[in-house]
Design brief:
Keywords: Hydrolase, Magnesium, Manganese, Metal-binding. This is DNase I-like protein. Pfam families: Exo_endo_phos. Belongs to the DNA repair enzymes AP/ExoA family. The structure is a single chain. With 378 residues, this protein is α+β, with helices and mostly antiparallel strands. The chain has a single domain, classed as Deoxyribonuclease I, Chain A (4-Layer Sandwich), CATH 3.60.10.10. It is 18% helix and 22% strand. The chain has seven helices and 16 strands. The strands form four sheets. A six-stranded mixed beta sheet has the order 3-4-2-1-16-15. Helix 3 runs parallel beside helix 4. It is globular and about 55 Å long. The protein starts with 39 loop residues before the first strand and ends in a 7-residue tail after the last strand.
Amino acid sequence: MEMEKETTPPRSTRQKISNQPILAESSYEAPAPPLADPNSMRIFSWNINGIAPFLQKPITSYFTSSKSVSSKGSIPLASLRDFLQRHNWPTMIFLQEIKIASSDSKTQEAVRIAVNTHNTAEKASLDKRGPTYDVFFTLPNDPHNARGLRGNGKVYGVCSIIRSDLSATSRNVKVRTVDWDKEGRVSVIELDSPSFKLALYNIYAVNGTDNPYRDPETGAVLGTRHDRKLAFHRLLMEECKAMEAGGREVLLVGDFNVALDARDGFPKLRTFPQQHVINRNDFLFKFMGQEEAQPKQGFGGLDVWRQMHGDERRYTYFPRNSEWGSSCDRIDYIIAGRGFWEKQLVKACGILDSEEGRGPSDHVPIWIDISSDGKENE
């Protein structure tokens, strides 16, 4: 198969990367712009690659030192409360790959504390000024496929963090998961108001590999992780179509572990081994642009970033074992159902693609603004 042409380098690699350390006062990522409309909700999504660096104390700044931001240096520490404050208290933040065992109630409680409390005494007074947040976990309970490297189940997992005052504004909020996933990959927020009904999905999709996928009940090998990825696509597609059939508008947000086309990979899109091409095509068929051609087969969603930013090349995954910007992909994104998009409920979206914004993770945050009153944009 002919390989795709290499894409234009991302903005951060067009100039030589400086070897000078980043000063502490410039260590925060550029924030998303302020909300232009008070009737909007801002949702962040971030694969944080493990919650531990966000819970360590003491934390005196977003990073422990300038040395910690080096691509090959130590992993920096971060503060969830600082992130929320720095971005003007968003309505929701969806975290993926939090790596908390379902039995670890201590760490779960530490997360609840971290989103509502600054980790430094000098910022304690700010906690009373900002809103409180409720925390909802979807954690692995599959003993055969989510055991972790040491058998403790600390792999995968998603966390949906929601402002506590959301329900107080005449909206009925329900958070649930799905019965077909036991790896902690799907959190569903059903949001009702007199004007609309939404189903917002926090997704950490399966990464396709040749490793075995086992029956969650018996442990018998059913195929590979590639096979499970294809099944995950099908089950999630069916879930989304069922939500739309029930009168809900659907928005999918998170890490989908697939780059959609040549614009989404640098220096090039991954096409080997062949199974990655199969996985990509399967995802495109089941979720993207199929409504007109195959109205009864695909979900027919729209890639919000491409709809709003055209061919602009921006990336969300920057592996820590590579120099910043030398290898990257856009695999975290937002998919709007056709009805969600046509009602103009999407107002803006962005990617915080900086080395500072990556923080302790190997992904950077993404964000979207959506209507909170059910009124279409002018």
